[in-house]
């Protein structure tokens, strides 16, 4: 199927992904798991969770291999790869430009929100993803976003929302406070909302969670910069914004991201409310309270591209 694993699409802590082709010519992505945790829990999680789904904004699992220690997942092929490379890698061109464009980013943020809302409320069971980040959002030929990588997912009854688990799960920079410490609240679907909000901050800022060249990354906290600009009703001052429509889209994404990363889970919107905000007018949105975990930088930072999310 992969012609002896000839073309590698990417890799991660789980193993590697290869491009493949079925006998009928259908292109696929084959995810080969080499580092299995416990008794292959992440593999079983992924198969169990994603096999219950069918949504335009959730990647389709076409099959899997389970033969002794050999385990692989076969997905539909996403020709544009992950969202990560478009918002983090300025060398990646998109129709001659480094930036996806605010209209495209707006549609991608809305598509991911719809996919998450489906996982939380549209399935016959509730699925909590626990690893929403740009790397796990794949883009098809039309840049339609699809949520992928369900290795950390938890499945619960539709009526349930609060889940119990040992230790934190997810990716640093996107994990909700309550997942680290139950003192902040109970772990629930609102933990995915937090991760989504941090991803929106990435999409707006176009920067990684950490900047290797920054002397003190704890001083450079992008959500704080967002909050300052919105609170003072300043222009966003981003080079990629060229008209009022783009300014409105960027401002809307910023406001929604701040609502999503509220420290108290009960203050965060549901994904249905996120969709309503993204589909509505920016003028109808209120600026949320400042998340108290964020702290102002000790020195002003003028260029937004140098701002990063706290690791």
Automatic annotation (TrEMBL):
Query: Gene3D superfamilies annotated for this entry?
Result: Phosphorylase Kinase, domain 1, Transferase(Phosphotransferase) domain 1
Gene Ontology cellular-component terms for this entry are: membrane
The residues covered by the Protein kinase domain are 3-293
- What SUPFAM superfamilies does the annotation carry? Protein kinase-like (PK-like)
Q: Which InterPro entries match?
A: Kinase-like_dom_sf, LRK10/LRL21-25-like, Prot_kinase_dom, Protein_kinase_ATP_BS, Ser/Thr_kinase_AS
Q: What is its main location?
A: membrane
Q: Which UniProt keywords apply?
A: ATP-binding, Glycoprotein, Kinase, Membrane, Nucleotide-binding, Serine/threonine-protein kinase, Signal, Transferase, Transmembrane, Transmembrane helix
| Annotated compartments | Membrane
Mode of membrane association: Single-pass type I membrane protein
Per its UniProt record, what Pfam families does this chain match?
Pkinase
Q: Where does ATP bind?
A: 31
Task: Give one GO molecular function term.
Answer: ATP binding
Q: Which domain of life is it from?
A: Eukaryota
Protein family: Belongs to the protein kinase superfamily.
Question: What is the name of the protein in this document?
Answer: Protein kinase domain-containing protein
Q: Which organism is it from?
A: Malus baccata (Siberian crab apple)
